[in-house]
Design goal:
It contains ten helices and no strands. By secondary structure, it is mainly alpha-helical. The protein has a domain at 71-217: Tetracycline Repressor, domain 2 (Orthogonal Bundle), CATH 1.10.357.10. The longest helix is centred in the middle third of the chain and has 28 residues, at 90-117.
């Protein structure tokens, strides 16, 4: 009496789009936790459970094309972090934006560092343009939260300066073992934006007008009032010592 043949797993042929999505997902997972220089097409093929020639079939440009496509996908996800319905206090909205942004940084870890630090052999004018596009989109979204359509040079520079500070703080946060906790980093970055806006408003009437409008929507015990109290105490003590 012969034994029945072992059951075989049903095989479903993936469509072109499904297969491309599968390979891209595998690549994104690898690029999220390792610099692109350390990843080969064999690594991507193994992670996706396919052969190396199949990866080439869908990405004939090799690892560079795959990396740029993965970077574009990650950039789209990162841009969405800054999208928030324009309702309620601006500091609440920006806090939620930073929460999503820091989750992205946490989940992509080494890949995020490699992306922003540059210097990779996979870095090209196209990858640099993708990163710059994310920065511009982030700045535009922050201006949306401020209710500004056409900012003047000082206000735009202020927002772009803050975006650069957020990037730098994120990289330092990763270097420091993700300390302080993400919630503390978020609150500090919100305070940074408030302070930067106040300093700019002191010499720029447009920024001063935007600040007045935004403060009118803030909660009495919100981040703006809390920071103003703390800074007032520090400056008051410093002024007393200078007299």
């Amino acid at each position: 009496m012969t034994s029945p043949a072992p059951a075989t797993r049903a095989y479903r042929r993936l469509s072109v789009e499904e297969r491309r999505t599968q390979l891209l997902a595998a690549a994104l997972t690898l690029f999220a936790h390792q610099p692109p220089d350390e990843i080969s097409l064999d690594d991507v093929a193994e992670a996706a459970g396919v052969s190396r020639p199949l990866v080439y079939r869908y990405f004939p440009g090799g690892k560079q094309q795959l990396y740029e496509t993965a970077l574009r996908s990650a950039a789209d996800e990162l841009e969405l972090c800054f999208t928030e319905p324009p309702a309620g206090p601006a500091t609440d909205r920006i806090s939620r934006v930073l929460d999503r942004y820091l989750v992205f940084v946490d989940e992509h870890d080494a890949g995020f560092s490699a992306l922003l630090r540059g210097g990779s052999v996979a870095e090209t004018s196209r990858t640099t343009a993708i990163v710059d596009e994310v920065r511009r989109a982030a700045a535009e979204q922050i201006l949306v939260h401020m209710g500004v359509d056409r900012p003047g040079p000082r206000l735009r520079m202020m927002v772009r300066t803050w975006i650069a500070a957020v990037e730098a703080a994120s990289l330092i946060w990763l270097d420091e073992g993700k300390q302080p906790p993400a919630a503390e980093l978020r609150d500090w970055l919100v305070d940074h934006l408030i302070a930067l806006m106040a300093a700019t408003a002191a010499t720029d009437e447009e920024t001063a007008g935007v600040a007045r409008d935004l403060i009118g929507l803030e909660r009495p015990a919100g981040p703006v009032a809390t920071l103003a109290d703390r800074v007032g105490q520090v400056l008051g003590e410093a002024t007393d010592r200078l007299r």
